[in-house]
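Appendix B. Raw example, untouched.
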Amino acid sequence: MEKLRRVLSGQDDEELGLTAQVLDSTSLSFSTRLKCFVICFVAGIFFSILGTGLLWLPNIKLFAMFYTLGNLSALASTCFLMGPVKQLKKMFETTRLLATVIMLLCLVFTLCAALWWNMKGLALLFCILQFLSMTWYSLSYIPYARDAVLKCCSSLLS
């Protein structure tokens, strides 16, 4: 209602500050979004650790499901901070497009290998690739982090 009142009174969004524009574009308050982010992220870490603990059981399905659920929950937690549409736009920018596609494919292939194909070794391989791709994807949000990692790896290999 407040937004409609501003538009009708002639106040444009350009007159508002960046923080006000962000808060107006979402229906949740900043503190609520921050709380939801923390809850979702902590749940993601919990499920990933639980999944890793289940790795030592003979049933690889539980490991793959909880580990993938943990990564999905941690990934979804950032939707509370920036919103789902902006999150998807950032995920598919050219700088992180390859990392995003590989990460999503690893998430899907992990579940396929564990639940339908019943190939434990392949499920474990996709979980390792899932971890590596999620790390590479996360590093894309930190300026020059990927370059630093590549330089460190190249200096270790030389």
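End of appendix B.
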